[in-house]
Amino acid sequence: MLFKEIEHCRYDDAHTSWLQASVFAHSVQDFLTPMTWFKSYDSLRLFTIVARHLSFTAAGRELNLTKGAVSYQVKQLEREIGFALFERVHNGIVLTEKGLRLQHVAHQSFTELEREIRALQTQTPDVTTITIGASTYFFSRWLSPRLMDFMAQHPNIRLRLQPIIGLGNLQTDQTDLMIRWGKADWHDLQTEVLFPCPAIATAGPLIAQQIAALGLAKALPNLTLLHDQDGSIAWEDWYNAAGLPYRPKQTSLVIPDPNVRVQAVINGQGIALNDALINDEFGSGRLTQISSVALDQYGYFLAYAKNALANPALNAFHDWILSAVD
């Protein structure tokens, strides 16, 4: 009798232990298994492209899809996540508040993922590749003469220089860090001043002669303003600083490439805001500064994604280029 009771107790204890172990194993498995309810990452990527263009049609062109196919996928994504991403307005679409938040997180995440994939693709046991984006104007006039110093200090870091036009885009230009000129009124990236480089109004020899003959205030209304990008307010800033009414000719010209813009000014196609990196042109007489008014808030800035400097190679370049400023 006693033996049977002991055996029964052993069975109950063993059975209880097995149940506890089973429950514990399932709990651990549930803990270790990531949430997988969201699976529409292709649609999420499509959403970031639509959000960048704020146009189903433009996104469709980039993706080689019809406008209807893009719109359908966005509606399916909205149905899956349970909230609207866009508001349809009479002249297009705008992001909702939740859509704006999701676009910001998704853009940062996809950028980080693509950067890591590129790093893994190019990684060798001892060499890390980083991609720096800037205009060819900046590369040739400022960065290139200094690069040998970086290469000597960091032989295990391989630089890839990516020319960009205008402000550039980390994702589409496939860059880890960009060097932008402007006044840092950008909110898409982390920014840090590299060095101030005020914007000054410049002209070629022929237009400079016209200004000298007529006076700046009388000559300006008849001159073509060369802009660096659509929607730029740099010239408006300059006119305000100069205390002049901003009434430009309708025949303004947008030339995003700084090298082409400099040459256009030399050729007499108009006047442009340039910076001190054109000192050689000033010295040779090919360009003239037509006013002492300068936009002191303008300069060159480092622009990069949040947490990008966690990459040791990129952080090394970041620290080096700041120290390389004369």
What descriptive keywords fit this protein?
3 domains; 5-stranded mixed sheet; D-Maltodextrin-Binding Protein, domain 2; flat; 48% helix; disordered N terminus; 326 residues; alpha/beta
Description of the molecule:
It is built from 13 helices and twelve strands. Helix 3 crosses helix 4. The chain folds into three domains: 41-104, Orthogonal Bundle (Arc Repressor Mutant, subunit A), CATH 1.10.10; 123-190 and 302-323, Periplasmic binding protein-like II (D-Maltodextrin-Binding Protein, domain 2); 199-297, D-Maltodextrin-Binding Protein, domain 2, CATH 3.40.190. The longest helix is centred in the N-terminal third of the chain and has 31 residues, at 2-32. The protein starts with a helix and ends with a helix. It has helices spanning 2-32, 41-53, 56-63, 67-81, 97-122, 136-143, 147-153, 205-214, 216-219, 234-242, 258-266, 279-284, 312-323, and strands at residues 86-89, 92-95, 128-134, 157-163, 177-182, 190-196, 199-203, 225-227, 253-254, 271-274, 288-295, 299-304. Strands 4-3-5-12-6 form a five-stranded mixed beta sheet. Strands 9-8-10-7-11 form a five-stranded mixed beta sheet, with helices on both faces. A two-stranded antiparallel sheet has the order 1-2. It is an alpha/beta fold and 326 residues long.
